[in-house]
Design goal:
mainly beta, Leucine-rich repeat, LRR (right-handed beta-alpha superhelix), ten-stranded parallel sheet, 14% strand, elongated
Amino acid sequence: MTDQHLSLRLQSLREVPETVWTRTGLETLVLSENELSAVPDGVGRLQRLRMLDLGHNRLTTVPEALGELEGLSDFLYLHNNRLSDLPASLARLSRLRYLNISENTFDTLPAAVTGMTGLVELRVTDNRLTALPPSLGGLTRLRELHLRNNRLTTLPDAIGGLQELRQLDLRGNPLTHLPAALAGLPRLEKIDLRWVSTLQVPTWFADLEARGCLIYR
């Protein structure tokens, strides 16, 4: 523990100690693997935070104040909670590079996520997504998109906007169609389609494989 880094992981916490919100010099805060059902608005005071880990708790919501952490740039972990939506204010986290919202109960991708235009890696595995919004194509810096174990039958044509995308994980989805726009992604290195038995293989897969893209199926 230092003035810049605080870990309260595995402390069986049901509430965050109020003293945490007075430590305004914190750059990393780890509150994972506790029993938290809420995070107070005090989190918005931690303006120097670069990384926040709230994973493996019992959160059903996160506060609007989280969107005040506009310096959050490295990681935001919200995985393995009970979240079904995110506040619109989180779209202000435009410097954030890594977001993990896996293992929650999202039926749709929260609109705030597609406002996080600095994202390099996005993990939304093990949720209930049935579709992705066209606004996903605005994440032009995204290199990795992990969507394993959702309920997706296709992807939007707007995925062609992800010109930096390297890895696309679609394992365990009931896919029936993939847009040809994927074939136009110049940096795509891997598409993972294991545990997908519903997809008729598109003819343009051969073009991707010919240029060195690995397609696991």
